[in-house]
C-alpha cells in the first residue's frame, strides 16, 4: 500500500505581493487609491476628447478622426495592460512613472499638434499625411499609458487588503467609469469653453501628475527605495514645471501659431460658442479674410465672384421674400439687396458672433455694403435644419443655402434629403433654391450627389460652376487656410419645384461684375460634361459625402 504524500505547504507570496506598509488605515488607503482611479480616468477621457476635437478642427471629417482615436486608443490600452504585468513587482514605482509620462504626453498633445499644423503649412508636401500619423502616434502612446494603469492599480488595491478578484475589479471599474463620466462632461461644458483646447489639456495634465505623484509618494512611499522616491519626485516636479511653463506661454504661443496659420495681420481672433472666428487684413489696402474654424470662408480678393454666382441666378424671377440659410457675414444679403422689389430678407445664422462682426467690424461691414443696417433684413439665430422644421410653408420666393462645404462632417446634414425636403416645403410656387455644392473639379462625386439629393425630393435642377482650369480661388466654404487646398472652381445648383429653372440674370438689377448670361451658359455646359449618373441621394442615416 502506497502511503499518500502530505500536502505541500502553501508557497509564501512573493515579496512584491506582501501587504503594503501604509501611513493610514487600510480603509482610508483603499479610498485614496479609488479616488486616484477616478481622477486618472477623468484625465484620460479628456485627453481622448481633446485629440478628437483638435483633429476634427485641423484635419476635418470628425467621424473619421473620432474613429481613428477611439480604435487606436482602445487597441493600445489592451497592449499596455499586457505590458504592465512585468511591472507588478514594482507596482507603486511603475504607476508613478506611468502617470508622470501620461501627464506630460497628454497635457502637451494639443499644443504639439497645433504647432506642427501651424508651422508646416496645410499639411502638404512632406507632411501630406502628417496630421493623421501624428494623431495615431498620440492616440497610441496615450492608450498604452492608460492601459498600463489598470493592472498596476489592481495590484496596489490588493496590496492594501486582499479580497476576491471580482470585488476588486468591480470597485476599480466603478471608480474608473464614474471618473470617465465626469471627464467626458467637463470637457465640452467646462474645459473647452472656459479654458480652450490648449490650456484645458495642460491643466488636465497638471491634475493627472498631482494625483499620481501624491498617491505614490504619499501613500506608498514606504514601498519605494530612497533613490526611487527622489527619482519620482524630480520627474513629477519636472513635468509640473514644463506644464506650468507651457501654460504661462500659451497665449504667446497661440498668437505666434495664429500668425503662422493666418498671416501677420490678424485683427480679430475670438472663440464664440459655436466656432473660432478670425479676421485678417481689411486695412491699409490689404484684402480682408474671414476664417471660421480654420477655413477661409471669405476673401476680399474673390468673394464677389462666389456670392454673385450663388445669389444672382436665383434672383432671376419673383424675389420679394428671400431666405438665406447661413451667410452670417452679410455678403449674400448684399447681393440680394441689389435687386428691386425685395421686401424681406431673413438670414438664419447659427453663430451670433459672426453677425456681430458683420455689423460692427469696419472692414467687413463695408464689404457687405452695411447689409444689416437695411430694415428689410431680419436675423434669426438658429440652426438652419431645426428652424426649417417649424417654418411656415410656401413663404419664400428664393432660398439661398450659403453653407459650409458638404465634405465637412458637421455640415453633412445640411446637404441631406431631409434638409432639402424641408427647404422645398418653404418655397412658394415658382420659387427657387440656390445651393453651393463644393468644388466640382476636386470632388465631382460629392457635387453630383448634391444634385441627386435635390432631385430625390422632387426638385428640378440646373447645375453650373464658376472657375477655370488655370485659376485658383482664395476662399470658399470648403477651404482650409493655406494655398495647397485652394479650389479651382466652385460648384452651384439652382433648383425649382415645377420645372427646370432657367439660368439667367435679372435684367432690372445692376449688372454683376463677374457674371454674364453667356458665361453662365458656358459654366452650365462645363458642369454638364462632368456629370455622374446613378448616384444615390445623401440622407441623415446614410451620408454620402466625404472630406
From TrEMBL:
Record-listed S-methyl-5'-thioadenosine binding positions: 275, 349, 383-384
Active-site residues per Swiss-Prot or TrEMBL entry: 402 (proton acceptor)
Organism domain of life: Bacteria
Localization annotation: Cell membrane
Binding site for spermidine: 307, 329
Keywords assigned by UniProt, alphabetized: Cell membrane, Membrane, Polyamine biosynthesis, Spermidine biosynthesis, Transferase, Transmembrane, Transmembrane helix
Catalyzed chemical reaction(s): S-adenosyl 3-(methylsulfanyl)propylamine + putrescine = S-methyl-5'-thioadenosine + spermidine + H(+)
Keyword Transferase (UniProt): yes
Pathway the protein contributes to: Amine and polyamine biosynthesis; spermidine biosynthesis; spermidine from putrescine: step 1/1
Keyword Oxidoreductase on entry: no
EC assignment: 2.5.1.16
Membrane spanning stretches: 31-59, 65-84, 96-121, 133-157, 169-192, 198-220, 232-250
GO molecular function, one term: spermidine synthase activity
Family: Belongs to the spermidine/spermine synthase family.
Name of the protein: Polyamine aminopropyltransferase
Lineage of the species this protein comes from: Bacteria, Bacillati, Actinomycetota, Actinomycetes, Kitasatosporales
Gene of this entry: speE
Amino acid at each position: 500500500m502506497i502511503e499518500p504524500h502530505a500536502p505541500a505547504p502553501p508557497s509564501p507570496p512573493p515579496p512584491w505581493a506582501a501587504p503594503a506598509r501604509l501611513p493610514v488605515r487600510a480603509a482610508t488607503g483603499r479610498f485614496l487609491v479609488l479616488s486616484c482611479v477616478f481622477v486618472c480616468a477623468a484625465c484620460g477621457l479628456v485627453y481622448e476628447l481633446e485629440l478628437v476635437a483638435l483633429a476634427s478642427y485641423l484635419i476635418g471629417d470628425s467621424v473619421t478622426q473620432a474613429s481613428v482615436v477611439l480604435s487606436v486608443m482602445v487597441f493600445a490600452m489592451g497592449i499596455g495592460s499586457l505590458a504592465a504585468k512585468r511591472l507588478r513587482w514594482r507596482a507603486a514605482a511603475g504607476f508613478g512613472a506611468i502617470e508622470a509620462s501620461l501627464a506630460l504626453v497628454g497635457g502637451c498633445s494639443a499644443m504639439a499638434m497645433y504647432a506642427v499644423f501651424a508651422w508646416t503649412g496645410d499639411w502638404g508636401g512632406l507632411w501630406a499625411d502628417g496630421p493623421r500619423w501624428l494623431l495615431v502616434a498620440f492616440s497610441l502612446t496615450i492608450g498604452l499609458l492608460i492601459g498600463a494603469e489598470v493592472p498596476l492599480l489592481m495590484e496596489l488595491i490588493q496590496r492594501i487588503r486582499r479580497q476576491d478578484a471580482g470585488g476588486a475589479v468591480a470597485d476599480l471599474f466603478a471608480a474608473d467609469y464614474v471618473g470617465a463620466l465626469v471627464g467626458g462632461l467637463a470637457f465640452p461644458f467646462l474645459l473647452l469653453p472656459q479654458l480652450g483646447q490648449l490650456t484645458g489639456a495642460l491643466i488636465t495634465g497638471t491634475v493627472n501628475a498631482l494625483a499620481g505623484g501624491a498617491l505614490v509618494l504619499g501613500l506608498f512611499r514606504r514601498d519605494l527605495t530612497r533613490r526611487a522616491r527622489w527619482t519620482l519626485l524630480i520627474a513629477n516636479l519636472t513635468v509640473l514645471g514644463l506644464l506650468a511653463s507651457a501654460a504661462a506661454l500659451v497665449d504667446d504661443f497661440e498668437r505666434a501659431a495664429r500668425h503662422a496659420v493666418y498671416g501677420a495681420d490678424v485683427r480679430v481672433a475670438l472663440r464664440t460658442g459655436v466656432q473660432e472666428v478670425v479676421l485678417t487684413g481689411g486695412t491699409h489696402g490689404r484684402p480682408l479674410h474671414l476664417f471660421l474654424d480654420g477655413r477661409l470662408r471669405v476673401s476680399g480678393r474673390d468673394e464677389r465672384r462666389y456670392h454673385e454666382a450663388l445669389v444672382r441666378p436665383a434672383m432671376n424671377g419673383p424675389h420679394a421674400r428671400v431666405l438665406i440659410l447661413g451667410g452670417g457675414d452679410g455678403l449674400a444679403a448684399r447681393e440680394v439687396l441689389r435687386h428691386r422689389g425685395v421686401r424681406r430678407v431673413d438670414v438664419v445664422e447659427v453663430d451670433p458672433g459672426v453677425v456681430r462682426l458683420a455689423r460692427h467690424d469696419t472692414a467687413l461691414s463695408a464689404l457687405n455694403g452695411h447689409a444689416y443696417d437695411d430694415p428689410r433684413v431680419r436675423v434669426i439665430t438658429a440652426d438652419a435644419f431645426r428652424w426649417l422644421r417649424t417654418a411656415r410653408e410656401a413663404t419664400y420666393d428664393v432660398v439661398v443655402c450659403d453653407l459650409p462645404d458638404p465634405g465637412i462632417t458637421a455640415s453633412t446634414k445640411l446637404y441631406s434629403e431631409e434638409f432639402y425636403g424641408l427647404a422645398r416645403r418653404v418655397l412658394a410656387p415658382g420659387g427657387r433654391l440656390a445651393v453651393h455644392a463644393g468644388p466640382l473639379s476636386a470632388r465631382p462625386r460629392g457635387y453630383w450627389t448634391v444634385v441627386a439629393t435635390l432631385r430625390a425630393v422632387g426638385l428640378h435642377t440646373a447645375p453650373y460652376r464658376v472657375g477655370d482650369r488655370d485659376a485658383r480661388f482664395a476662399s470658399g466654404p470648403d477651404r482650409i487656410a493655406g494655398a495647397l487646398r485652394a479650389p479651382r472652381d466652385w460648384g452651384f445648383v439652382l433648383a425649382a419645384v415645377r420645372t427646370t429653372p432657367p439660368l439667367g440674370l435679372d435684367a432690372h438689377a445692376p449688372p454683376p461684375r463677374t457674371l454674364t448670361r453667356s458665361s453662365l451658359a458656358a459654366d452650365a455646359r462645363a458642369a454638364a460634361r462632368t456629370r455622374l449618373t446613378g448616384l444615390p441621394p445623401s440622407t441623415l442615416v446614410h451620408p454620402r459625402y466625404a472630406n
